[in-house]
């Protein structure tokens, strides 16, 4: 068994409308699913992705109304990366960020790739990474429906960054449980060393970058923080096999959870990072036509009879996804 790469990253926003406006109007991504948190239906769960909502391209947000400030620190998923096709695309984004007064650090290099670190309106830590030299997991299908041309568009998720106090237990889970391999390391401009782990075909869509900060306080999450990262599993049969492996390693876990659009399993590694394993299918077109993804509130069948109650508890979300 081998994990295929990153499936999705889920983060926290304090306001779904402002979040939608940023990720569609500024970043040009497609809202492919407007639904609710299945564990707390009082909050929206928004999925942004490529044109088809492909696994490995989903950046998702739980709306926690009035979520507090994030105090960044240890035991966290500290940065999420988004892939673009080329260095030329990065230059476009740098100019666009200046135009919209988006906080960014300029273009630099990490692990042999050009990158552009930036923050969204809530301080979410993000990095655009060029796929120009990528030979691993392929990117998704560019979406140009929100004003960003296809050759400049976000085409998927790039490496996720962990910040932890001790490398040993996290490395053990990544390599001995999940089958990642250590690909090398690189240094940031301030000298901090980052260890790189990869799975499957490797490349920008299948890496975890790990920074060790022993003296750093634990992160206090809020708006602009990441809740969990999910890795790709082929199908339910393989997910069941992963469940057995995780049980054998005596890692407390959720068991298999039906999310309707995919099947999932959750567990925490010893440094507290919440990890999900999720199947590639059946996908977001299960209950909506591909052309209409994200245009209305979608509820899985097991919540359908509560639609009236759920909608009454949600603030209307104005979306123009074309």
Automatic annotation (TrEMBL):
Keywords assigned by UniProt, alphabetized: Dioxygenase, Oxidoreductase
InterPro entries noted in UniProt: Extradiol_RC_dioxygenase, Glyas_Bleomycin-R_OHBP_Dase, Glyas_Fos-R_dOase_dom, VOC_core
Ranges where the VOC domain occurs: 5-131, 156-280
GO molecular function list: dioxygenase activity
PROSITE patterns: VOC
PANTHER family the record matches: RING-CLEAVING DIOXYGENASE MHQA-RELATED, RING-CLEAVING DIOXYGENASE MHQE-RELATED
Name this polypeptide is given: Ring-cleaving dioxygenase
Organism from which the protein derives: Gracilibacillus salinarum
């Amino acid at each position: 068994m081998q994990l295929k790469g990153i499936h999705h990253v889920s983060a926290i926003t304090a306001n779904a409308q402002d979040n939608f406006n940023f990720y569609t109007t500024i970043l040009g991504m497609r809202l492919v699913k407007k639904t609710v948190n299945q564990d707390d239906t009082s909050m929206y769960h928004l999925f942004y992705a490529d044109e088809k909502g492909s696994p490995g391209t989903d950046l998702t947000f739980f709306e926690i109304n009035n979520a507090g400030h994030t105090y960044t620190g240890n035991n966290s998923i500290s940065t999420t990366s988004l892939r673009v096709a080329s260095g030329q695309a990065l230059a476009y984004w740098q100019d666009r960020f200046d135009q919209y007064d988006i906080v960014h650090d300029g273009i630099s290099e990490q692990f042999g790739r050009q990158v552009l670190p930036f923050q969204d309106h809530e301080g979410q830590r993000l990095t655009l990474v060029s796929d120009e030299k990528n030979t691993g997991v392929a990117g998704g299908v560019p979406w140009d429906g929100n004003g960003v041309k296809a050759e400049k568009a976000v085409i998927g998720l790039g490496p996720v960054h962990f910040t932890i106090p001790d490398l040993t237990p996290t490395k053990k889970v990544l390599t001995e449980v999940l089958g990642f391999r250590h690909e090398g390391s690189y240094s940031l401009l301030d000298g901090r060393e980052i260890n790189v782990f990869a799975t499957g075909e490797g490349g920008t869509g299948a890496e975890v970058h790990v920074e060790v900060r022993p003296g750093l306080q634990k992160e206090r999450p809020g708006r602009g923080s990441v809740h969990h990262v999910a890795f790709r599993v082929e199908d339910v049969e393989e997910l069941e096999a992963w469940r057995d492996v995780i049980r054998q390693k005596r890692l407390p876990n959720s068991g298999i959870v039906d999310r309707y659009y995919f099947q999932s399993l959750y567990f925490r590694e010893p440094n507290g990072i919440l990890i999900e394993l999720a199947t590639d299918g059946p996908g977001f077109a299960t209950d909506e036509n591909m052309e209409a993804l994200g245009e209305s509130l979608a509820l899985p069948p097991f919540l359908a009879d509560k639609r009236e109650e759920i909608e009454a508890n949600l603030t209307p979300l104005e979306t123009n996804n074309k």
